[in-house]
Amino acid sequence: MNTPRDDGITAQRVRAHYDRVSKWSSLLCGEHIHQGYWEGIGSIKEAQERLIARLASFAQIFPGAAVLDVGCGLGGSAFWLAEHLGCSVLGITNSCKQAGLAMKSCRARRLEDNVRFAVLDANILNVATASFDVVWTLECAEHLSAREHFIQNCLGLLKRDGRFAFGGWAIPEQDLRLSQQALLDQLCSAMLCHEPDRLSDYVCWLKSSKLTNIVAQDWTENVRQTAAEWARTLENRLVRLFLRFSDPRGSPKGVVRLSKLTEPAPCGMSPV
Ligand SMILES: C[S@@+](CC[C@H](N)C(=O)[O-])C[C@H]1O[C@@H](n2cnc3c(N)ncnc32)[C@H](O)[C@@H]1O
Predict the structure, then answer these.
(1) Is residue 81 in contact with ligand 1, taking CB distance under 6 Å?
(2) How many Cβ atoms are within 10 Å of 40's Cβ, its own excluded?
(3) Residues 72 and 31: beta-carbon distance below 8 Å
(4) What is the chain's pLDDT, residue by residue, as a tens digit (272 residues)?
(5) Is the CB of 147 under 6 A from ligand 1?
(6) pTM (predicted TM-score)
(7) CATH number for the domain harbouring residue 178
(8) CB atoms within 10 A of CB 129
(9) Does residue 258 fall inside a structural domain?
(10) Which of 22, 93, 207, 269 is the most exposed place for a label (fewest CB within 10 A)?
């Protein structure tokens, strides 16, 4: 098991951050808080929904599956899985505000029979074991310090023949250059993330579990355009104003310059 890192990023800080920014981020950026999968031109929302569709097909999620979405954000994945595949989804988040907003969208979409949200800590995952066909987690593990432990907990919630669909940030296999490490440190601190692991670490952890068919892909090139889109959003005056008031760390000076990430990126996106 990897040991939790002590980098000052606590679960309480992460929760307070999402409580503080979720309302505004839902208004400004919509219900997806994750990378997009780009194929030619299109909106960021289209790219984000394409990424969900690809991850769902990658994990061979079948219609009607019972899904646990860990770190569900504003419910973007849960709604997509319910609307496109008829899945029943329990989304969990550590943020009360986020769960409330997600539930509101759920009612507006008339999905209350299929989709529920609860406030629960992904570090503990106090949910009935062996009760889901799919555990889905998209860009949540970045906030968790003991990822191997987290993954073993997720797998324990799967029924026999269940599927684990994971999308997250990974660092390259080779050592980072000093400038890349500095940028990564800045990014992690601004986004309240612990340093990502390597794709090979994830594969290794999964291989030591009960899972039998493990497939991992590096989608770095496909998601790269998202950082440029976010940088464009950050240039909007309304958004800058929002950042200034919503989060003291989020003043334009304090935010990592996302435009830098359009240079060769130090981390990528890897579904496992
Ligand atoms: C970058 S957002 C991704 C949200 C969503 N998966 C999506 O793709 O839109 C990270 C999510 O992880 C959640 N999260 C972070 N730490 C958590 C924890 N300890 N327990 C539960 N949720 C957590 C946050 O509240 C947030 O919803």
Answers:
(1) no
(2) 5
(3) no
(4) 555 567 789 999 999 999 999 998 898 889 999 999 999 889 999 999 999 999 999 999 999 999 999 999 999 999 999 999 999 999 999 999 999 999 999 999 999 999 999 999 999 998 888 899 999 999 999 999 999 999 999 999 999 999 999 999 999 999 999 999 999 999 999 899 999 999 999 999 999 998 999 999 999 999 999 988 888 877 777 767 766 666 555 443 434 444 444 444 444 556 66
(5) no
(6) 0.90
(7) 3.40.50.150
(8) 12
(9) yes
(10) 207
